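Lab notebook: predicted structure, single chain.

Context: the supervisor wants predicted structures on file for every construct in the current expression panel, including those that have not yet been purified. This is the next one on the list. No modifications to the sequence; it matches the entry in the shared construct table.
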Amino acid sequence: MKWMAAAALMLAPVLAWAQTGTCPEFKNPELKWNQRQGDNYTLCYAELPGTLGASTGFGIYLGHRSFKPDKKAKAEKGTVGAQQVQWYTKATPGNARPYSREAMIVVPGPKPKSKLKVYAWIDASSAEQLNQALTIARQVALN
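Prediction complete. Output recorded below exactly as produced.
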């Protein structure tokens, strides 16, 4: 029973940002989100340094969004913050950003069978941009 109380205390900050529709913090204070609020969702997007306006970076979607990877999508293990994820190749119009990825982050909830799902994506035109975005993804304070 004590472990459940401890887990709830540790998860409180994670669930707070998700439930209030605000972007999570970064471990690195130099990183900042571009936040866009919709009627029932929040988009949090961090552009890659030096690529402003190029639509390349890392983002998360807080709201109700389903995600099912394409059957042909290649899967790779990775992390967002401390959460383990499966990154899948993401199709982009005209294959303009061939190194793009997408994933579903599963964050444990305060109750044993409750969990929160958060959609995440990376838009990248090169392997270098993909690596930069993966580095940003690891800086999200989800723990």
